[in-house]
Amino acid sequence: DGASLCSHWSQTPGFKQSSHLGLLKHWDHSSGASIDCMPTSTQAKMVSKRIAQETFDAAVRENIEEFAMGPDEAVKEAVEQFESQGVDLSNIVKTAPKVSADGSQEPTHDILQTLSDLQESVASSRPQEVSAYLTRFCDQCKQDKACRFLAAQKGAYPIIFTAWKLATAGDQGLLLQSLNALSVLTDGQPDLLDTQGLQLLVATLTRNADEADLTCSGIRCVRHACLKHEQNRQDLVKAGVLPLLTGAITHHGHHADVVREACCALRVMTFDDDIRVPFGHAHNHAKMIVQENKGLKVLIEATKAFLDNPGILSELCGTLSRLAIRNEFCQEVVDLGGLSILVSLLADCNDHQMGDQSSVQELVKQVLSTLRAIAGNDDVKDAIVRAGGTESIVAAMTQHLTSPQVCEQSCAALCFLALRKPDNSRIIVEGGGAVAALQAMKAHPQKAGVQVGRAWDGGRQAGVGFGEGMGAETGLHADPKPGGPQPGLLEAHPGPGG
Prior knowledge:
single chain, mainly alpha, Leucine-rich Repeat Variant, 63% helix, disordered N terminus, Armadillo, repeat, ARM-like
């Protein structure tokens, strides 16, 4: 009960007796409710301790009024006290509420004042003011996720939704601001989007398919609404969002921001990341993207417009790898010319013909991930080897030896190419793949995905001795570090790349 809770925390060393600092709450992630009770030791391990924004603000106000602290000191003291009790303050706005200019209102946070002003301007149908307040709202929410959380608690969604509907009368500028505000608000809070919002979002994207900026912002809303929210994904797919996403890539094929957002949204549609549902429709969504919306062709064609943009190419390749989920899809990538593009990109990266090092490494990782994905088809394995893919993979691993992600994807791609293919294993080993893999294993002994000792069974079956004369005995069978992986004894990483 509350009394025992206050008593418990009042015994904490350095604790200041305060009616506010004792009112701890516990957040129930399944229901979204705050529980005013002290958990058992078992519950404490399962539930994060949270407080309401009002509780934090009251503690800050008490520090100012009763202990004569300045605003910054009062906030710092409150933060230290709550954190010493194990309270999670990640969703708390850690500033002192401000008094209004005329002093006529209670002190409030900037985000709440903006929300109040926005609500008033929307109710009065003053578009210029609405646009200004939406811009301010976006800026404040981008600065601190706690502002987004507080705004959502205080009814920001229905206010923004009303502004959004006001903008659909034909004010394109206001419509863009409304979508921007919605995307910021739903970032990490997908539950906010209701049925009306979902329907209006699809309608807005449909009516404004020719407008790149509106399309980009609208697709960002789709992505935020679907991340870790299976029901929103299914509802949006049923509402027809998939052809809007692939259509955006086709229609705005030279607009980098649109292509990037559309790729991200398509990938999110293939996620199975909502812990609240026993299973999702990720596989079905991927099939729909490919079979009903020509997703593979759309993505492969889009690469041709961005051959000098490794960032967008990474997005496109990463999306391709998420869609290569069936044998025939892997073959379709080859038939559409995707394999030649992938091998060419890898060669260009190895020849230093693209961008800065970090963006190049990310592109290399995504190309390797895609090659590994399509190598699930045995015929495609042979096609990759014939296209010179093994040489490019080995060169990429050697060139980016310091990157554990590139090494992991390279090793995994070589493993897939060798699987059930003794001739491919021989080609890989003779082409320096075994040496490169050994170097990667030595460079990253703590990365299980790079430790691929068993992956070369095909090479041994083909009569190729892995590591002969290359120091493999030292690299693979030396005593491992305590607590580290066992070199040479771990399977190749089975999952798709990041």
